[in-house]
Amino acid sequence: MDQVRQIRLAIPPFFLLASLLWGAYLGRFDLPPILKPGTAKEALGLLAAAAVAILPAGYLISTISVMLLRGLFAMCGKPTYETVLDDATLDRIWSKLRSGQPKDAKLILYAAATFNHELLAPGIHTWILRRWNSFNVAAHSIVALALAHALAPFISIPQGCWWWATTGVLIALLGWTAVIAWRETMRMIKFQSHRQQKGGEVTKDGAG
User: Fold this and answer.
1) What is the rounded CA–CA span in Å between residue 81 and residue 175?
2) Looking at residue 154, what is its pLDDT?
3) How far, in Å, CA of 14 to CA of 51, rounded?
């Protein structure tokens, strides 16, 4: 697993754990003995267990997040949340791919991925990747915060107004970040589709 994906999977579990601990603190909830190590050895064991669980928990959170995003965009009539482009942009991208297949809107994800990974300059691709990672981290972290409240009743953590207020503020901030990052990603792909090709890469006004 590449480092970027590991970071994307590692951040949401921290939001989940931090939110649960914050809720427990606000609700004056007494943590179980297993979460209150009495010795350095027990503390190290707890930290090791948490480290091992981070990536699996992050993968589960991201899976739930992706399912929700796909469902939301499907209800809006979009084939995928990963690429939403107008017909003119798809026409320009498709013409640059030199594909023997006729243009098919159902293949928009694969067309955009090929355009992004194969034809764009590495610097532009990296710019898009940073924005896309920002979107994913924000979206998955929102799901993690929601899961904290869903799990709270099972471990008897009281859900007071201040905890809900904190969660609401964080979700608003993360939601705004996700929307901006997603829009910037789509707009950059659209902008790059207007540029001409030379030597296998997209260039401005045909200049190498």
Assistant:
1) 15
2) 87
3) 11
Asked whether the CA dihedral 154, 156, 157, 161 is positive or negative, the reply is: positive
Cα of 207 vs its chain's centroid, Å: 35
The 3-class secondary structure across 152-170, one letter per residue, is HHHHCCCCCHHHHHHHHHH
**For residue 190, which amino acid is it?**
K
Quote the pLDDT of residue 34.
Answer: 44
Q: How many residues does the chain have?
A: 208
- pLDDT 10s digits, 54-77: 888 889 999 999 999 999 999 998
180: nearest Cα among 137, 135, 136, 130: 135
Residue 175, Cβ neighbours under 10 Å: how many?
Answer: 14
Do residues 120 and 192 lie in contact, with contact meaning Cβ atoms separated by under 8 Å? yes
The residue type of 130 is R
Predicted pLDDT at 207: 40
Please give the C-alpha separations between residue 125 and each of 97, 132, 143, in angstroms, as whole numbers: 16, 10, 27
Per-residue pLDDT at 1? 57
Distance between the two ends of the chain, CA-based, in angstroms? 34
Whether pLDDT at 163 is above 50:
yes
